[in-house]
Automatic annotation (TrEMBL):
Keywords assigned: Kinase, Serine/threonine-protein kinase, Transferase
UniProt protein name: Similar to serine/threonine protein kinase related protein
Lineage: Bacteria, Pseudomonadati, Planctomycetota, Planctomycetia, Pirellulales
PROSITE patterns hit by this protein: PROKAR_LIPOPROTEIN
Domain Pyrrolo-quinoline quinone repeat, chain residue ranges per copy: 525-645
Any one Pfam family match given in the protein's UniProt record, by short name: PQQ_2
Highest taxon in the source lineage: Bacteria
PANTHER family: CELL SURFACE PROTEIN (PTHR34512), OUTER MEMBRANE PROTEIN ASSEMBLY FACTOR BAMB (PTHR34512:SF30)
InterPro entries, per database record: PQQ_b-propeller_rpt, PQQ_rpt_dom, Quinoprotein_ADH-like_sf, WD40/YVTN_repeat-like_dom_sf
GO terms for MF: protein serine/threonine kinase activity
Length: 692
């Protein structure tokens, strides 16, 4: 089979297929009103107030105390929880989980009805339905499991499955029962900022009863993990406004005009009653309608779905929209603590989506803003907006921002930060949209800025960025991993750009300044003048420019290709390709999957001369988006065909002992906690474990 057959990104989101899919699924489905309009509607009803974060409670000048952060070893020692992407702030997906199965059978699902035949299922504790496309990784903490997805399952009556949302879902860890959902309505600007059907693509951070994540709307949100099940509306955000439903103006003969007239007369029509009933808010008894502005704004006071409340009703363009304020009665909705809108407050313009799995250090929260290009893939709408920010995790106050990639952002910025004490200094690692890895001191900064420690260009200087993935210059989509004093990261691009040349780096984080492998210079006779980094191509030889070795290079070793069979030729399986994946390392054995579907196993220490030691590569014959899980002396890696390869851990084990199909694509990374493997497929979450 020719490997080129696998080069197109065919399931997600190649533009032709995705455009057709979007048209089919969303035909006739109107985009929701932007939340700014919703808030105004609620305010017009004099009912709801969304409180601002009380920034006066934070200490903007405080630095994180290392002692405040639980060391990663203590977090994972019991193997009971996996509370963020990568498990800990160092992002190495190697939990101390035990008694995990090496094989399982998910049974069969009827493609038409979704009905499950579990007669042949093995080692499946439970499964829960997700949306129609899921790219978020599971997080396990406090007896609950969290996954980002879209609204394809329609858990909330007020948001049926044909309404496109970004959803963060919470399930009970014991039986997979649905607990609550945070719903992010789509941005009115459309796919340039909020690509259809992608949902929430990041993983949340959970600490105790608090959860932090980034929405598809470019917001950083802090939630109460218990939701409203604890009988409290935590704050400072309280009485949050939520959509109940809409009555669309479907044209001549519709009940739209009659409904406007009836509202002016203090009555609900059958059509409006049906909207409320379908959303689980059926009117009961007498309902008092009050007109605030004729044909424009009303309130409805009474009992709705068994709860006494006042609704806000607004005429907004081609629809009549109904809103409520969330309360402790709304058990299936999320309880929001604070919200920070990066688009409004910082001028960020994310490309296609906002996606960053945040992490913390003491009271500090670190976030990649996802600032990127517009639909032209050439213009940068917000060149002054920050790409990386540090916040107070308790209040949502921004402590410092950084714009290091500047105008050199290649596409989007969707990576996630990692943190470790390296060389005695707490460092937070940020993957810039220019293909550089940046390290900042993990503290509260000074005068609104972070302290840059070092930066590393992860692309060869003569590599070139070409639209659509045709070039050799790459982004950083993976998350950097800290292991035994060194840092590891691979380059990649948006999967829509297909396969291409890749690089995996091992970096010494104790150096300072520009620690790239080479420097870009202008040759003028015998002189070499340093030149600033350029977005498309750092070094253009035809212009008298050259790449010279950097005496301050932090490269420990570099892997792009290796002639493993010593035949003098480089085969496809002997190359490192673009990767969305993050490395996982245990006992100096490193695993990573590239987007071409190759599993690479290397020695994490490499050779003293800076060359890699490659133990083996294995071809899964399907593109891989995720990262390896190393646990219980096994390695688990999923692919786009829906197969999960299971290897015995160790450099000598170059063939999987099992390849288990999950029914649909596995875009995410398996995680393990409490003797259970959690895998989110394209549309389901599985809890896999041996019988208790």
């Amino acid at each position: 089979m020719a490997r080129s057959e696998f080069s197109a990104w065919c399931l997600m989101l190649g533009s032709a297929i995705l455009g057709t899919l979007t048209t089919v699924l969303l035909s006739g489905c109107q985009p929701p009103v932007p939340l700014s309009t919703v808030t105004l509607a609620a305010a017009a009803a004099n009912e709801t107030v969304v409180a601002d974060v009380d920034k006066s409670k934070s200490d903007s000048g405080s630095a994180a105390d290392v002692s405040e952060f639980i060391p990663p070893a203590e977090v994972i020692e019991s193997g009971k929880e996996w509370p963020q992407w990568g498990g800990t702030r160092v992002r190495n997906n190697v939990p101390n989980a035990k008694n995990l199965p090496e094989s399982w059978n998910i049974g069969k699902f009827d493609r038409r009805t979704g009905e499950w035949d579990g007669s042949k299922a093995e080692n499946v504790r439970w499964f829960s339905s997700l949306g129609s496309q899921t790219y978020g990784n599971p997080v396990v903490s406090g007896g609950q499991v969290y996954v980002g997805s879209n609204n394809g399952n329609g858990y909330l009556k007020r948001y049926p499955s044909n309404v496109d949302l970004g959803c963060l879902l919470a399930f009970d860890q014991k039986d997979g029962s649905f607990l609550w959902q945070h719903s992010s309505e789509k941005l009115i600007t459309g796919r340039v900022h909020d690509w259809p059907l992608q949902g929430i693509c990041c993983a949340p951070l959970v600490e105790g009863e608090r959860l932090w994540f980034v929405t598809s709307r470019g917001e950083v949100r802090c939630l109460d993990t218990k939701g409203f099940h604890d009988g409290e509306d935590d704050g400072p955000v309280q009485n949050e406004v939520a959509r109940v439903g809409d009555l669309m103006n479907s044209g001549e003969g519709s009940d739209y005009e009659d409904s406007l007239s009836s509202l002016n007369q203090g009555e609900l029509t059958k059509s409006l009653t049906k909207v409320l009933t379908d959303a689980g808010s059926e009117p009961e008894g007498d309902i008092e309608i009050k007109t605030l502005a004729e044909n424009k704004s009303w309130t409805a006071k009474g009992n709705f779905g068994g709860v006494d409340r006042t609704l806000a009703i607004k005429q907004l363009g081609p629809r009549i929209s109904i809103f409520k304020t969330l309360s402790v009665e709304d058990k299936q909705d999320a309880d929001v603590i604070w919200v920070f809108n990066m688009m409004d407050e910082l001028g960020v313009s994310q490309h296609n989506m906002c996606s960053c799995s945040v992490t913390s250090y003491g009271d500090l929260l670190f976030v990649n803003t996802s600032n990127g290009l517009d639909e032209s893939h050439i213009n940068l709408p917000a060149p002054e907006a920050p790409s990386f920010i540090c916040m107070n995790k308790n209040t949502g106050e921004v402590l410092w921002t950084d714009q290091s990639p500047g105008t050199n952002i290649l596409h989007g910025q969707w990576s996630s930060p990692s943190i470790e004490v390296l060389g005695g200094v707490p460092q937070v690692l940020f993957c810039g949209g220019d293909g550089w890895l940046y390290s900042f001191k993990a503290d509260g900064g000074k005068d609104g800025a972070g302290e840059l420690l070092w930066k590393f260009d992860c692309n060869p200087k003569e590599s070139k960025w070409i639209l659509g993935g045709e070039g050799t210059r790459n982004n950083l989509i993976a998350t950097p991993v800290a292991y035994d004093g060194w840092v590891y990261v691979a380059v990649g691009q948006d999967p829509e750009h297909g396969e291409g040349e890749g690089h995996l780096w091992c970096i010494d984080p104790t150096k300072r300044g520009d620690v790239s492998p080479q420097l870009a210079v202008k040759l003028e006779g015998d002189s070499r003048e340093p030149i600033d980094h350029k977005r498309i191509q750092a070094v253009e030889p035809e212009k008298g420019e050259a790449a010279v070795d950097n005496p301050n290079s932090a490269v420990v070793w570099h892997y792009s290709l290796a002639d493993q069979n010593d035949d003098g030729e480089i085969d496809f399986e002997e190359e490192m390709h673009r990767s969305c994946g993050t490395v996982a390392i245990k006992d100096d054995v490193l695993y990573i999957a590239d987007f071409s579907g190759l599993v690479h196993c290397l020695d994490a220490k490499g050779n003293e001369d800076g060359t890699p030691i490659v133990h083996f590569t294995y071809d899964m014959f399907a593109q891989s988006w995720g990262s390896p899980l190393i646990a219980d002396d096994k390695v688990y890696i999923g692919d786009e065909d829906g197969d999960v390869c299971v290897f015995e851990f160790g450099a000598e084990n170059n063939e999987p002992i099992e390849e288990i199909n999950m029914g649909t694509s596995v875009y995410s990374t398996p995680v393990a906690a409490d003797e259970t493997i959690f895998i989110s497929t394209k549309d389901k979450l599985f809890a896999i474990g041996k019988p208790r």
